[in-house]
Every structure is written in structure tokens, then in C-alpha cells.
Amino acid sequence: MPSPDPYVAIDAQPDPSLFARLLELRGAQPHQRRLRRAFLAFAGVPAGARVLDVGCGTGVVTRELAHRAGARGRVVGVDPSRAFVSEARARSRAAGLEAVCRFRAGRGDALPFRDRAFDVVVAVTVLLHVTDSDRVLAEMCRVVRPGGRVAVLDQDFGTLVLDLPDRALTRRILDGHADRYYADPWSGRSLARRLRAAGLAAVRGRVFPVVEPRYDDYVRSMLERRVALAARWRLVTRAAGRRWLASVEAAAERGDFYMSLNYYAAVGTRR
Q1: Is residue 69 one of the residues assigned to a domain?
Q2: SS3 of residue 208 by DSSP
């Protein structure tokens, strides 16, 4: 059975631009901007660095990396989706970052770069989508120089919290979606251990709790997609799904909407 996760094969979707818009919509959220800044500070991206962004999508993180690396730096984004790479190039040009940013199509488990080519290699919210993520980590380690850093950030959907009255229905929708949709929905909590297993030294981990008190367009689309899939998988009836979404809307109208999700980061140094 093909994966229900569209990010596994964006170019095979009927409208890849829809997912490009969703990535940019998520990236524009204030808490996501804070998260990126905090993660890249934790990763340690110095000015003038050669940086690789694995699974770059539309280049949200790549553009942030370009600001950190500066005019003397070189930032490369790689993604298996040609539609995303095209979008990333256009947005980089629009931001005036084409002198620092480069993008190319390529798979994370077979990175199209020579050994030891980069000072820092990052992957942000990528590994949970990938079946053979250990191979992606091995490739990230291969292309970073000795003394360089590998840094990863992933959500952990075992920590997705919504404050709603029907707890059993909420668990069926959220946990059922996580278990069926992602290659590894609990990826975040395993990152530090996996970087050590990949042979990296001085591995450090950190958690970034993200609290979303606003029921904005991105969050609405995220929850609507979960309900639609839960109904398709017969985890809930369509009527129950509509009732659940109505309870979310009601909480938002009262000013009581609350959602949180933990992001976990790990960084290590190649020996």
C-alpha cells in the first residue's frame, strides 16, 4: 500500500503547489520563526560556513541558514521534489539570497555531494517522513568534514496535545493519524541516541515545546486533514469527525483553543 504521507512523493501529488503553500504558511508562523532561530543557534552555524539543508522543501530553513552563513558562506538545499526545488529557487531569488543559496534535486539517502564537503549539515522535520532514516543520517555524516556538525530537528507526534472535552475521540484521531501517516511519528525523542549510534561525538539534545494558542489557517488545515484521514481509515465516523472539529471551532471562538507539540533536536560532531 502506498504511503498516505504526501511528503514522501510530492511530485506525484495532483497539486504540489498546495504543499508548497502549506510549508510556507507554517514557516511564517511566529512560533515557527522562533523555533528555527533557536534550533540553528543550538546547531551552531558560524558565519562563512558551508552548510547543507537536507530535505529543504521550499527553502524556509535554507533562507534562514543563508542569513546566518552570510555573504562569505555557501548554503545548499537538497530535496527529492523538483517542484519544491523550483519553488525554493524562486523564493530565494525573491529574498535576494541567490548569491548564497543553491538548490538541487536529490535524495537524502544518496546525497549528490562528495565526502567532507560541508561544515554543517542539518535536517529539519525530515526524518519522521523517511522509512530508511538511518541511511539518511549516514549520508549526512559522510558529507560533513571532520570537526563539522550534524544537526537534526523533528517533531514527536506522541506529544501532540489538544485541550478538548472528548478525550477518547481526540486520542483516536490524533494517535490513529500519527501511527498510520508517518514513517516514524516518535522520531524526535530518538534523535540524540541515533546520532551517537551513527558515530558522532559530543552529542547534545534539546527539546523545544511549541505552544499554539491560535487557531489559524495552517492549524485548521492540519486538523481537518487528520479528521478526513481518520474517517477514511474508519477510525471515526464522519459525523464524529465533524463533531470533533466543531468542538475545536467552539474552543477557538471562546478563546480557549490550546495545542502544543514537542520538537526535539540533537547535534553531534564528526570525529
Answers
A1: yes
A2: strand
Break the chain down into helix, strand, coil percent, rounded to 5: 50, 20, 30
Residues spanned by the domain of 103: 6-156+184-210+263-269
For the packed helices 217-232 and 238-254, what is the interaxial angle rounded to 10 degrees? 160
Contact 190, 127 (CB under 8 A): no
Give the separation between CA 10 and CA 6, rounded to whole angstroms: 6
- CATH number for 120: 3.40.50.150
For the chain, the average pLDDT equals: 96
Residue pair 120/144 in contact (Cβ under 8 Å)? The answer is yes
Distance from C-alpha of 145 to C-alpha of 21, rounded to nearest angstrom: 34
Domain count, the chain: 1
- Decide: 213 and 251 in contact? Cβ < 8 Å: no
Per-residue pLDDT, 1: 52
pTM of the model: 0.94
* 133 within a domain of the structure (yes/no): yes
| pLDDT > 90 in the chain, percent | 96
Residue 115 is classified by DSSP as T
**269 closest CA partner among 201, 204, 206:** 201
Residue 5 has pLDDT above 60, yes or no: yes
- Mapped onto helix, strand or coil, the DSSP state of residue 52 is strand
pLDDT of res. 2: 65
Residue 232 located in a structural domain: no
Query: Can you tell me the mean pLDDT for 119-142?
Result: 97
